[in-house]
Amino acid sequence: MAEVTAHTVKSFDDDIKQLRSIITQMGGLCEAQIVSAIDALVSRNTDAAAAVIAADERIDMLEAEAEALAVRIIALRAPMADDLREIIAALKISSVLERIGDYAKNIAKRAAALSTAPPVGPVVIVPEMGRVVVGMIKDVLDAFVDRDADLALAVCQRDQKVDDFYNSLFRSLLTFMMENPQAITPSTHLLFVAKNLERMGDHATNVGEMVYFAVTGQHIVDRPKTDDTSSYSVSG
Known about the structure:
elongated
């Protein structure tokens, strides 16, 4: 009987490790996709943009794999308490990462459209904004694997920096469009790129909240949101 119990525990641990591995793979791919999409945007490289778009399929496949494994673990192992919270968190995180991958793909599509348009000055803000977002994704997945509630909380707090970048880029692009009406179309594409990155930051923060709850059983409350672009007006 003891041998059966030990085997069951080992099988459960192996399933959890495999689930964590899938989430880690998804996160690594998302990070690479964001970096590559922004590089394609800045370098105006349509081939690189096409490669990002094609690579998104791998993230979708891993999400389906994570979902199937999580459902199987719940059905066969009947996990409780901490284990159940972690599995549910992994299930939700895989969905969030798939969405982040979609945003990276969308940036690549915008990069292809922008490659033939005149350069838009405020684009220089995008790479730094992307670096912050990629750092958040990396750290929040480390927090998930290591069950580090403090790191998860720190990632949530860094979302304000992404919002600050977004607010700055939004204002810069509006001013640029006013001064260069012929650049309205490419500037609009860049606005969507900035919004994609801002949403990625939100999603990384959501993952941080999931990890924090999975580890502590407590919810993060009163998370501030500092995107103020909806109230921004331009006087001409």
